Predict the 3D structure of the following.
Amino acid sequence: MPDTVLTASEPPARSGADLRVLAVRWGLIVLLLGMVGFFAAAEPAFLSVRNMVIVLQSVSIVAILALGVTCTLVVGGFDLSIGSVAASALMAASYVMVVWEGGTLAAVAACLALGLLVGLVNGLLIVKLRVPDLLATLGMMFLLLGLQLIPTAGRSIATGMSLPDGTVAEGRFTATFLALGRHRVWDTVPISVLVMLALAVAITVFLTFTRWGRVMYAIGSNPQAARLAGANVERYKIAAYMISGLCASIGGILLAARVGRGDVSSGNSLLLDAVAAALIGFAVFGAGKPNAVGTAIGALFVGLLLNGLTMMNAPYYTQDAIKGAVLVAALMFTFGLSVRRS
């Protein structure tokens, strides 16, 4: 009799486990498709080519920053300075061209160098001085937010502005630089979207198919074991933060090219949106770990959600609450996976 009862109870238990596996693996995708279907039914223009291009353009910079965060998550870290790096890159590009009257290459080089330098400093603080990653990058965030305001006494940068020393800024953004944020390939696809896709593919290949990427995942999973296996853990962690800083500076360049001025308020919301996209990526296809494909889909998820709410005239003050609810749902899928595996 005991054997009969045990045998009879096995199929329902196995069925429940299978349902949980399906929910974890496909739950977020089903939620995404359901959301798209709902918005499309409520507003037919939601699925128009023009609106989809607008969505991709709106999420491209967030996705680029989120891809950088993903690299730090892979090694078991976290970067809170990405939003301030992007904002500082925007101000640096504006300062080089408007105040110093430099060209496109000089502005882009200055921004990329800034991103790499900030990533290097973050990595050294975390690895060499043993400062917790959240505290190190939080301190860097506030430092950059303050430093970027000093050269212009807290004012936005635009042609004809008066500088603190009494001179007038007579430079202007070059047409080539502005094209990075405004030009559309085949009159349809913005360059920022192509940059986002290229970075997503490059980081996916790097993390998934190269030895360095696999070592980074190993470090994030068990740094002590990776160190015993011969991996230079410190060097890999510093490299991850430098990649994050580089991605953030690229996002800042594209943002500066889009707005065409050094706006001190630009980039304020980039951090939270990028972090949300990276964390939602954990739940895509039940990965349960940081990955570039999931991050890109997470950014698209957030972009589609906000675009749909805007088209339905939802109050602006409800959007953050809805984004938070979506993030909580995504984390539920992620922890559901961890429970299943344990």
